[in-house]
Each structure stands twice: as C-alpha cells, then as structure tokens.
Amino acid sequence: MNKQWKKQAATLMVAALAVSGSAAAYAAPQAVSNQEQKPVVISAAIDYAISVNGQEAAGAGYMNTDAKLVMIPLRSVSEALGFDLKWNQENRSVELTKEGSPIWTQVQTGKDQYTVNKMYKSLGAAPVNVKGTLYVPAIFFSDVLQANVSVDGMKVSITSEDEVKKENVSGTITEIINTEHRTAIHINGTETEGIVLNVDENTILRDAEGQKIELKDLAKGMEIKAVHSLAMTMSLPPQTYAYEIQVQSDKEETEMLATSGAIADIQANGDSLRVTIKGKGLTAQSPDVVILNLTPETVIAHKDGRAVKSSELSNDDEIIGYYSPMLTRSLPPIGTAAKIVLQ
Fold it and tell me: 29 preceded by cis ω (within 30°)?
C-alpha cells in the first residue's frame, strides 16, 4: 500500500511539473517580445560592390532572394550622399535629413513602410538588421532619396541628383488641410479625385505678384500653380510634396461658395444653361444641392486647365461649381455660376 501511494505521488508530481512547464512555455514569448530584436542572419553572400559618386563605399550588398531586390547598407551609403542619420532605439528606426534639402525620411527595422516627405511608400522589402548593419533595398536611394541607382552584374552604382526631380501642376484649391499633424492642399477634386499637395515650413508660397504669403492667405477656389516632387503615392487621391505654390487667380474669388458633385439636371435658360449640382458643399455656407445659371461670363474649364464649351456638359458629369453667396431662398437655392470645373 505504501509503495502504491508513493507511485501515485510520483505520478502527481510529474503531472504538476508538466503543467508548470507548459505555463512557462506560454510565458516565454511575452518575455522575448520585451527584449531587443536580435540581428538577422542571412545565408546569402554579401558580395555586391557599391560605389557612390564614383567612389567605393564602405560595406557591400546582397541579394534578397525572396523579393529579388539588392539590399545595401543604409548608413555608409546615405552618409556618402550627404545625409545625416539619427537612430531611435525605442522603435528601432532611423531618421534621415540633409542640410539644404527638403528630403526627410524615416525607415524602421522590419517594416516595408518608408516615409517619403511625410507619406508612406512600400518598396517590396523591409529594412533588415544583418549582424548590426541595417540594410535597405537599393531602390530606396532612387525612390526615396532621389539619387540615380544602377545595378550592373554584381556592382551597384549610386550618384546624387544635382537637381531634385520636379513637376508642375495647375488647378483649383478645393480643400485646405491644416491640423496639428498635417498640412496639405487638395486641388482639382474632392475625396478620391484630384491631387493632394503636402506642404511644410520649406514650401514656398507666393501670391499672384510673386510676393511670399502664408498658408492662411490661401483659400478654396483659388487658382494655383505648384511645383511638386515626382514621387507620388499610389493612393486615391495621390499625394506628393509641394516645393512651391503660386496663386494665379484674383483674391476676389476666395469669397465665392463652391459645391462639388454630379450634374443632376441640365435645362436651357434662354441663351444660357441652368445646371443642378448634387454633391457636397466645399465651405460651411455652401449647400450640398444648388442650381446654377451659366451665363456667357461663366468660365468653364476642365480640371487640367483647358477650356470647355457649355455644350460639352451632360448629366452625371462630375463638376465643381463656384458661385456668389447671393442665392435665392428657395430649396434648392439658385445662383449664378462664376466658374465650372469639369472633373
């Protein structure tokens, strides 16, 4: 009996140990998650030679066989291009800046989410820590830092751009975003239409006479011309960084109301047309539904700036109508269109 009791006790002890072991196994991942991520060890050979502006760069690259992308060391190449790097241990990220350049970016270990002028961009591979060195895709230096990158066999050549690639766009301001975390101007559309121009303290703003102004001087309905980066998000609407914005229109237009939407009805009104717009008012005073009389003085244009004849307008066309605050008290209110922008 004594032997049987000892056998049962031993069995209970083994079971208790098994349960405690299981608990430890489940607790382990939580403990590991609080520890610093260990460097990734790769099996591929680091054998891609790198040159920056004709000079051999420190370190070498390797082929990411999963993404089919050449990965090269971030710090040595970025510093050779004149960038300053600041490491953030808390979230394992690196901030890159360059004196005299509007380019600002941040990369984070393990995340294929690169910051380009305060926008996010995927490059197909995340930054990887290999034995203490952070590697990024070679296209990071072309798509983000805007340098020229070429891969020839086992050699990667990177050269600086003397002039950042830029492009011009013209349009009408339809929304101004000015929050604690973001400043931007939406032109040529609302919601998913048009383009969003991100601005910061480095963006130059000018009035029609070329004098510098501030963001508060811009308003919906203004015609502007902007110089922006070729780098653009694939979102709807696309977003890009604006280097310079210049007002093209007269300041009186800033007092106009505006409604964006589809043409619900078109009727002949003597020598002119009358259109009903159903959509969204672009100012607090603008109705979502409005009837506008189009006169010979009404400017009608496509969002790209080309002139449009009134006869080209039809039901269901997406437009933005700009008009005076002088409206009838009817429902929907009726006014006179100063400008119609076809989307």
Answer: no
d(CA 227, CA 246): 9
DSSP one-letter code for 84 = E
- Residue 52 in 3-state DSSP? strand
CA distances from 167 to 31, 138, 163, 256, 281 (A): 50, 24, 12, 29, 30
Q: How many CB atoms lie within 10 A of CB 239?
A: 22
Q: What is the dihedral of CA 237, 242, 247, 252, to 10 degrees?
A: 50
DSSP annotation string for 206-247 = E-TTS-B--GGG--TT-EEEEEEEEEE-SSSS-EEEEEEEEE
Taking residues 224-232, what's their average pLDDT?
83
Predicted local distance difference test score (pLDDT) of residue 254: 52
Is pTM, for the whole model, over 0.70?
no
Residues with Cβ within 8 Å of 153's Cβ and at least 6 positions away in sequence, in order, are: none
